[in-house]
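Minutes, project check-in
Item: structure for the 411-residue chain
Input as provided by the requester:
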Amino acid sequence: MALMVRKYGGSSVADLEKIRNIAKQLVDLRREGNDVVVVLSAMKGETDRLINLAKEINARPNSREMDCLVSIGEQTTVSLMAMALIGMGQDAVSLLGHQAGIHTDNAFGSARIENVDASRVRDELKKGRVVVVAGFQGIDPDENITTLGRGGSDTTAVALAAAVSADICEIFTDVTGVFTTDPNVVPKARKLDRISYDEMMEMASLGAKILEIRSVEYAKNCNVPLHVRSTFSDEQGTMVVKEDKDMEKQVVSGVAYDKNEARLTVTKVPDRPGIAYKILKPISDANIVVDMIIQNTRAEDMTDISFTVPKKDFQTAMELLQGTAKEIGATRVLGDDNISKVSIVGVGMRNHPGVATEMFGVLSQHNINIMMISTSEIKISCVIDEKYTELAVRVLHDAFGLDKELKEAHP
């Protein structure tokens, strides 16, 4: 007997037949004596459909109204799921984000959960109901509907699991777990039985689309065990858990890539205190996330500053930088949206020297030029030309023996 939180993504609830199949599984879980909270995304393609409608009526839709609109997708799926369960004889109730006590800040489109009042959810569970919660949404202090950004249903599920002290939070998707890299790029990529919270956060931030990064951060902070598994298979997936000593034996756990980045460079910037702040402040104020930053010193007290932003924000960032460049006396602004970021991740890097050297050597052997480099204790990222992305992923996966089990893997 357990208290479970289960999250199903858009592909898992893409049509009525899939919703019915999930409902049958939930009925079985209840008959076994488990308490169940279910968090659902919108049906596959529904959020995009709503976004396109908004853009047809207004090229730059108001962010508050956009959140109100796109939240409809999840409202549809939770209502249908509750109806399916009730039709099978299992009492159920659907709750929207605010009804489930999901309180957020007011950053429309990318709101962060500030607290969860799970009293309503607990009361419904005591009545023997399956509680079906709309993912991806909440309510701000002014009672406006907010959304958490793409992948936000993962965060909803983890936050609820922490709030109700669930025994486990299971994230159901269309893949069987977390792999050493994208199997579509490297067919011999291997599914991991376990991965640490920190490794999963790095993988998520670096382009792996299995889990939303904030959900993993939330799970780590609240010690919520995550199980990533497939909706369409009974196969065990990947557990995301606390790091242990065995994990450090694997030098590199995975290779991630992200083609959704763009690079911006401000050239011949006066090299004086506060200049980086002046360049990046307008970008930050526009809620654009800056990733990698490099400053190169020139002669005559001049410098170049380069950084990366999400590709979707490229044009906005360029426009902002053009204005800033004039203000600070910089020469020009350069942009490149034909780049990608390729990264290796592993907690074992902390205790194994030479990993970066080997990564750079492998890329060099295949004539892949490195434009920018970023490192942390457990990751190394390189910005390269987008056309070399798949090649870089394949050769790095091979170089670090990620298709092999630990006992055979790279020393």
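Outcome recorded: The chain is about 35% helix and 25% strand.
No further action items on this chain.
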